[in-house]
Amino acid sequence: MSPRSVQANEQLREQSRERILGAALEVFAEKGFHNATISDITERAGVSRGLITYYFPGKNDLAAELLGRYLDGVAGVLDITGSPDQRLAAMIDGVVAAAAATLPVQRLALSLMTHPSTHPIFAATEQRKDEDVIRLEDNLRDLFAQRGAADPALEEVMFRSVLEGVIVKATIYGASYPLERVRVRLHELYRLPPPVTPLLDPDPPPVGRLRADG
């Protein structure tokens, strides 16, 4: 039997890393970062403890990698093209879709951001992505300037605050949070054409108040 090629070995290593990261995200989402153990992740991933620690020496390293990918996804809005209104609508839709599709990593990010013992992990990861964050802020300010905002810098802060609030609410309330109706309202709030087609599954029926996921 001929030895595996360098490319095949690299593919196997990448598959192992992805399996470990996927397992870590599942375990963190189920147990919380603080209660999760490397043993839990080892069992979920179906790999040896030595393989996990080869790629990620500890839980902090796993969390930092997952958060880095999350921030990369946020920075992906920089690739959106079109008119200012088209770009703004696409950003809103992208954030809403991501909030629906990536609740486990959203919960992890929220947990690490707010807990005093793990906030440094988030802060360090964000610092490594500082260039992308600055570009995102500049991009948004330019967008709002093109839309005629009197204070583009303030509009950038408000826009990000609104979207981050949506993410937090979706993270806390899960399936009971009316993301599709919120999406339509955001288009209306920013004087954008109403969405033509739904982005997500129908919202749950309106209730007296939201109920947090168990």
Plain-language structure description:
The mean pLDDT is 86. This protein has helices spanning 6-31, 38-45, 49-55, 59-75, 84-101, 103-114, 119-128, 130-146, 152-173, 179-189. 69% of the residues lie in helices and 0% in strands. By secondary structure, it is mostly helical.
The fraction of residues assigned to DSSP E strands is: under 5%
Q: Unreliable runs, pLDDT <50, ≥5 residues?
A: none
- Helix-and-strand structural type: mainly alpha
Q: What distance lies between the first and last C-alpha atoms, to the nearest angstrom?
A: 52 Å
SSE pattern, N- to C-terminal: HHHHHHHHHH
Helical segment count: 10
Based on CA inertia axes, which overall geometry fits? globular
Proportion of residues in helical segments:
55-70%
Biggest sheet overview: none
Question: Mean pLDDT, rounded to whole units?
Answer: 86
Strand element count: 0
Our Rg estimate from Cα atoms comes to: 20 Å
Helix and strand topology:
Elements: H1 6-31, H2 38-45, H3 49-55, H4 59-75, H5 84-101, H6 103-114, H7 119-128, H8 130-146, H9 152-173, H10 179-189
Q: In a nutshell, what does this entry contain?
A:
With 214 residues, the chain is mainly alpha-helical.
Labels describing this entry:
214 residues, mainly alpha, 10 helices, globular
